[in-house]
Amino acid sequence: MGFLDLFVVALMPVLKVLLVTAVGLFLAMEKVGLLGPEARNYLNKIVFYAFSPALLVSNLAETITYKSLVTLWFMPLNILLTYLIGSALGWILVKITKTPKHLKGIVIGCCTAGNLGNLLFIIVPAVCDESDSPFADSSTCSTDAEAYASLSMAVAAIYTWSYAYFLVSAYAVKRTEHSSIQSSEAASEPSSDGCTEALLASSYSQITEDGSGNVELPLTDLKERKKMSFMEKIVQCLKSIMSKIDLKKVFAPATIAAIVGFVIGIISPVRKVLIGDSAPLHVINSSAALIGEAAIPSMTLIMGANLLKGLKRSEMNLLAILGVIAVRNIFLPLLGIGVTKAAHHFGLVGSDSLYQFVLMIQFAVPPALNIGTMSQLFQSGQGETSIILLWTYAVALISLTLWSMLFMSLLA
After folding, report:
1. Exposed end of the chain (fewer CB within 10 Å): N or C?
2. pLDDT tens digits, one per residue of 290-302
């Protein structure tokens, strides 16, 4: 495949995203007024509860089987590594750039979650359709490409709406709490004698019935902790983390949809009832696929509409934006080559070059559009998120092409 052909293949999907983003920006302008704040909020909820889950269910049910899932067992681990490495690099980035607290979740989220759904659905099959494709024959390559892209999208949805969602929501909640504290402090007035009382949490003090005394507990807790064994400390730490996890957030509609899609695809009797033109209930899957087709355009329109707010006023500094671009377009792809080569060396992945290509490109994609969906849900940092997404996707026009060429040359 020549340089020009590969450039066009990698350019088209990202260019489509940018063009639809421009349409969303146009529809959000005051003179047009079709995608104002209220309209974006409603559209975002429809994407969250209907479009994205339908897309996941239909694609997974059609392309994933028990046999393919066993063969592709390393892909979920590979995607998890992209999220863990990305979040670590994002955490370092916010420390270096001194990003405002309420925007830290957005920066870390953009470094963590990549677009492992719609871009792979376009890029990988398009590479297979080229006459001089390096990946087997066109029919076999296209079938495998759809299976790889479907599994990638499903696993990424689970990680995004559990791990990445937790990171973004944690900082969004902190901002809300910070604002509430500031408001309460501003509303309160000091007493006439100018004295202030220290407020202690219930876990650190105890008031007697007559209110005369405080019994301090930190010292006692500290002594008890010293007596605890190492394993007991780990168990206590895990319990503390689990108590802070909201299962309603972890099991978002997209996560539940991915689980349902896996069940339909893996369990043969259920698959025969729902999948295929001759299936008795194939109309259900067809309807889900029809609804799911609206997910990607809707998310991209919302991203473009939110961009209007970011262009008018943004608290995101240039250094943070450049840092996200560097993480997603330089550091992660380089680490992706190392991870894939190491996995192949130790026999964790087979000799299928297309499969290895997908594993590598999962490290090189721009941030997930769902980060914009999250910022819209939390009503925090929508404009800043859109600016980061705009610039990372603009850079991806070139970076995806160059990385794709390098990946193919390494796998040739």
Report:
1. C
2. 998 888 888 888 8
